[in-house]
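Hi U.,

Before I forget, here's the chain from the pilot set. I'm dumping it here mostly so it's searchable later in email.
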Amino acid sequence: MTTCIGIDIAKQHVDLYDLDAKQAKRWEQTPTGIQQCVAFCKNATPQLVVMEATGGYEVTLAAALQAEGLPVAVVNPRRIRDFARAAGQIAKTDQLDAQIIARYGATLEPMPTERLDDNSRKMKALVARRQQLVQMYTAENNRAGLTTDKDIRKSITALLKTIQQQIDNMDEQIKDHIDRQPELKQNVETLKSIPGIGDTTASMLVAELPELGRYNRRQIAALVGVAPINRDSGLFRGKRMTGGGRKAIRSGLFMPILVAVRFNPVLKAYYQKLLKRGKQKMVALVAAMRKLLCIMNTMLKNNQPWQPNLLKNA
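Structure:
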């Protein structure tokens, strides 16, 4: 069994459980507390440190641990909850959460998360902020369609203008950041060579999926959550399902794949072939998304631009 440390991260505290030593610790979620947590983990020399993705609270600690050469796996909280239920862990406290995270890591040995350098973290933060602004714009735009009051509409229009300016500003910052990083720029340009993939999608992928081009196609599909999952038992043969993984990437690829299956000749032919075989449209779209990701993975791995024959090897 893997020697594992589980860490539960909240806004104010960091709770740790060393499964091998059966020891629980707590520190404040401050630079000093994080430093003490890292020192403890470094001294314990675990084979794996596991923590949940908590919407950003985990980023600083994960980066600090990785900087010390410790393997860190940041996992989907849903996987931890499912594991806890399967293990009969009903009670919930921060310390118990840290313990169940450690048990999850030792039992299932999740793959360590790719280490991000300062430039990659900056890129990820810029892309995340742009997504937040787009969500704000969409929400206000929806409100505009529901109101008949002139003053409220005027307020919404002014706010929409401000948000759009911020989106444009964020686009410039993302472009400038990419232009200053040769490797990021090369990866973005390579991805943009695919018909149907533009600046926004390419930037999102290099920020949210740094493993692209470094893992094999099965690992990439599983990371994003587009790998089919069997649902067979005895004589029962259920539909294959997809899910888990990085939802933000699937969401970010939804509109591009709709464009690609219409205007990219290779993916269009692949999509139409699936429909003719009786696949539902959404199933065929997810399969096309998986194929597109595998093609992107091959392109970045070999540092080569889009070529129609890549479909055969992906």
